Amino acid sequence: MSVYTPVRKAALAAWLRDYSVGTLERLEPIKSGIENTNYFVTTTQGRYVLTLFERLPAVELPFYLNLMAHLARHGIPCPAPVADQSDAYLGMLNGKPAALVTRLPGKSLERPGAAACRELGALLARMHLAGRSFPGYQENPRGPKWWRAAAEEVRAFLDQGQWQLVAAELDYQVRHRFPDLPRGPVHADLFRDNALYDGERLSGVFDFYFAGVDCLLYDVAVCANDWCLADPARACALDPERTQAFLAAYHALRPLSTLERDAWPVLLRAAALRFWLSRLHDLHLPRPGELVHAHDPGHFRSLLESRIAVAPPWIKAA
């Protein structure tokens, strides 16, 4: 669990008086996440999620909140930001920028099968199509510039083999660029724990606070690297059935081009590198917090090595 900024009920109750959401009944810290402080908030009028932003400056936050509002208006099941009485999505609480969003029903799946991957593929394509009319712009905050900076920051903590793999992959990514791929707003962190299922139905996706404008296929790769594994607990190979279900459902709504097929192995490696670096950074350069959980970076090293060694599945010909 990550709670960097404790929030007391009395302070939150006073803060909520500027919102038309009723009076506070319950406040619970959320047992996941490593970037922000999150709480479940229950009031007399509904259930919400409160986020206090620990790293992101307030000037960058409107992009995320406005993107969520835009997607929600276009029928994407994602949290809708709640505006205060001055029509602002963003406020200040305990000295941190804070936002209140609607809470979605359902729970995350630990072991999604082909049917769940198929639903995710269709929803991701709908998100990308809806994002075409979003006017905001912000470059992917964890894109190639960040990879290089993060690699230098963690270099002192890596053994020779780890650093050689990082350096070699950074060089590979520089030499394999695809500037003509379709671009637009991407979630960029849509792991299994950032999606909810209500029974058999995909009821929502959340945590857009790594979103930015990037290749749409990069978003697809981030999802495949987490959702489509043969065994998420032990193995890093992509399961052909799950991958086919995911990609085919996406392709049915936003057809993937020949250029995107050529870029697919490269972007799977890029997504693995990004999350390996972020896990290394969180492990070796942690921030002080009341309750902090950092994920094991070893999984993403193994995943990157697997993507380098094995050609990934693609959409089967009809």
For the secondary structure, the number of strands is 9
Residue fraction in strands: 15-25%
Instruction: Give the helix/strand class.
Output: alpha+beta
Query: What is the residue-averaged pLDDT?
Result: 94
Unreliable segments of 5+ consecutive residues:
none
Rg = 20 Å
List keywords for this structure.
Aminoglycoside 3'-phosphotransferase, Chain: A, domain 2; Phosphorylase Kinase, domain 1; alpha+beta; 318 residues; two-stranded antiparallel ribbon; 2 domains; 9 helices; 9 strands; globular
Task: Walk me through what this model shows.
With 318 residues, this protein is α+β, with helices and mostly antiparallel strands. The protein folds into 2 domains: 9-102, Phosphorylase Kinase, domain 1; 114-309, Aminoglycoside phosphotransferase (APH), C-terminal lobe (Aminoglycoside 3'-phosphotransferase, Chain: A, domain 2, Alpha-Beta Complex). 41% of the residues lie in helices and 15% in strands. The protein has helices spanning 9-15, 61-73, 114-131, 144-154, 160-175, 216-227, 240-253, 258-284, 298-309, and strands spanning 24-29, 37-43, 46-52, 90-93, 96-102, 183-186, 195-198, 201-205, 212-215. The strands form 3 sheets. The protein has a 5-stranded antiparallel beta sheet. A two-stranded antiparallel sheet has the order 6-9. Helix 3 runs parallel beside helix 7, helix 5 (160-175) runs antiparallel to helix 8 (258-284) and helix 6 (216-227) crosses helix 8. The protein is globular. The model has no long low-confidence stretch (mean pLDDT 94).
